[in-house]
Amino acid sequence: MPIGPTELIIILVIVVLLFGARKLPELARGLGQSAKEFRKGISEEEKKPEESKTEQKQS
């Protein structure tokens, strides 16, 4: 069941009422930074097993 434009507008209104219009940019910025750090952590985690495999072969 897809979310339609009416539901998105209702959700947006509720979020504005809960957090206020002034807090929304701060929340969005924090969410963006969190997502960036998460992606960075995932990419570092993927590189670590490759590095440990090459270190084991060299030993």
Describe the overall structure.
This protein starts with a helix and ends with a helix. The radius of gyration is 20 Å and the shape is elongated. The mean pLDDT is 83. It has two helices and no strands. It has a domain at 35-59. The protein is mainly α. Helices cover 86% and strands 0% of the residues.
Largest sheet: none
Low-confidence runs of at least 5 consecutive residues: none
User: How would you spell out the order of helices and strands?
Assistant: HH
Radius of gyration: 20 Å
Secondary-structure class: mainly alpha
Amino- and carboxy-terminal Cα gap = 55 Å
Shape assignment: elongated
Please work out how many helical segments DSSP would assign. 2
Number of strands: 0
Strand composition percent = under 5%
Arithmetic mean pLDDT: 83
Helix content: over 70%
Strand-helix topology:
Elements: H1 5-19, H2 23-58
List keywords for this structure.
single chain, 59 residues, mainly alpha, 86% helix, elongated
Short summary:
The chain is mostly helical and 59 residues long.
